Amino acid sequence: MTPPSEPSNKSETIKILVVDDLPENLRLLQEMLVKQGYNVRFANSGKLAILSLSRFQPDLILLDIMMPDIDGFTVCQQLKANPETENIPVIFMSALDDGTNKVKGFQVGGSDYITKPFIAEEVLARIRYQVSLKSLQQQLQHKNQELIQQNKQLQKAQYETKLLLEATWTIEKSHTLEEAISSILDVICQNIGWDYGEGWLPNPDKDVLEYIPQFKSCSAAFGRFQEQSRLITFASGEGLPGRIWQSHKPEWIEDCSTCSETVYLRTQLVVDAGLKAVFGVPVVESEKLLAILVFYQTQAVPYQSRTVELVQAVATQLSSPLQQAQLKQELQRANLELELLANLDGLTQIANRRHFDYRLQQEWQRMQRLQLPLSLILCDVDYFKRYNDCYGHLAGDDCLVQIAHILYQSIQRAADVVARYGGEEFAIILPYTDTQGAISVAERIHTRVLQQQIPHADSQISPIVTISLGVSSLIPTSTDSPQSLIQLADEALYQAKQSGRNTYAVAPAI
Ligand SMILES: [Mg+2]
């Protein structure tokens, strides 16, 4: 690529425009400059010089002052007024060796001044000086751009770090994973200037996402939206949280209030709350989704990659501390379970009364937070005293073990609890279950006990062992207590017994 001949490659690339009305001056300068390897163009008038600049962008201009059409000062002024040519250094050339002209030359933006007749070394030295000065200026500009860019990145990193530190600190202060997520929503909302945040957590069975509200800075305007959202769960692929759960990727909707129900699902609720733009990011640790963070604004906002990247970066950094918070919580729960294991009912090996009380309290609080129904079934072996009298206590114990086993086999979800409530009474706690669901469970149990065909010669209603069941169901509120659910089930059980036993009764809704 490089020509083997002189001049050097470096000066070959430097382009110089020479402007002079005298042909001998042009010839002289051409000889001098081409020998040095410069790429030289000529113009014999100011007009031509300006015209030629549209096709030839020189690195330097040698400009005569005295010319017939437009003088050199005017040409220079025009060049300096044009942003495309203002940075080309101009060296004035003139036979007039007086101070006034030199001063004017610099005033109109000239970089240097050469007097005629030319001294070759002087001309070349001045050209080299201007060319290197220009090159340095360009380098400086370039460096400056780089610094501006680095500074922006640094600011971004500092901002991210600040947000991250704040968020990490809130996780450490939190007692539960839910509390941690609530607080993180606060911190992120404040930092990115969005109006409202919500979190979604997979439930213990990992089949739906449950709602986690923002902790404290939620404005009253969004209160109803929050209340209504508590009642909703999303399965994988459903709505914005469900889609993020499935894809593990962020999603942005410019204006969810105009989305169809199939895309957003809570369209009417966001319309009522006045929320428009929404985006969500997943919190994933080792390919496992821990939570989804969703943010809203009251304005429609087109996709902002910077916001998503920032929040996703923070969410990714938080996944590990969040998982630790979750593990801590699970460990605490496991420890409690272990402790309670020691209190399993010795005879039937299902939960004892103490475990029942604890779990009922726990599920009561959880369903109260989620505003979902909680059901309870109490059941009693019919004429059990007669069974004991007839077959003896050992056979009575064996009968209870069989019934407990049937009950245990009849519940399907990990969150359900079967407990020995006392004597021949059993209790079943059914979270996420409304009256209809609880009736199905009661019917299933009732049928299975009959199918077991345990002989009961002394029963007054059947030759085999039968049970009576009382079902109650409600959505827990803060003004109520688990005791009211027990009382309702107890009344229903009494009802079932009154109506002849071997059946179930349902407490009326309150
Ligand atoms: Mg002249």
Give the structure's gist in a few sentences.
The chain is built from 17 helices and 15 strands. The protein is an alpha/beta fold and 510 residues long.
Please tally the β strands and state the result: 15
Going by CATH, the architecture of the largest domain would be 2-Layer Sandwich
**SS element count, helices:** 17
The biggest beta sheet is recorded as: 5 strands, parallel
Strand arrangement across the biggest beta sheet: 2-1-3-4-5
Q: What are the low-pLDDT stretches, counting only 5+ consecutive residues below 50? A: 1-9
* Cα gyration radius (Å): 43 Å
> Strand-residue fraction?
15-25%
Q: Spell out the CATH superfamily of the largest domain.
A: Reverse transcriptase/Diguanylate cyclase domain
CATH topology of the largest domain: Alpha-Beta Plaits
Integer count of domains: 3
Briefly note the structural class of the backbone.
Answer: alpha/beta
Estimate the mean pLDDT confidence.
89
Helix content: 40-55%
Overall, the morphology is rod-shaped
Q: For this structure, what is the CATH class of the largest domain? A: Alpha Beta
Bound molecules: magnesium ion
Question: Whole-Å distance between the termini?
Answer: 92 Å
Structure description:
The protein is an alpha/beta fold and 510 residues long. The chain contains 17 helices and 15 strands. The chain has helices spanning 9-12, 23-35, 46-52, 72-81, 99-107, 120-173, 177-192, 223-230, 239-247, 261-264, 267-273, 305-341, 353-370, 384-391, 393-410, 435-452, 482-498, and strands at residues 15-19, 39-43, 60-64, 90-94, 112-115, 196-202, 209-213, 251-253, 277-285, 288-297, 374-381, 417-422, 425-431, 467-474, 504-506. The strands form 3 sheets. It has a 5-stranded parallel sheet with strand order 2-1-3-4-5, sandwiched between helices. It has a 5-stranded antiparallel sheet with strand order 7-6-10-9-8, sandwiched between helices. β9 (277-285) and β10 form a beta hairpin. The N and C termini lie far apart (92 Å). It binds magnesium ion. The site of magnesium ion has 6 residues, from loops.
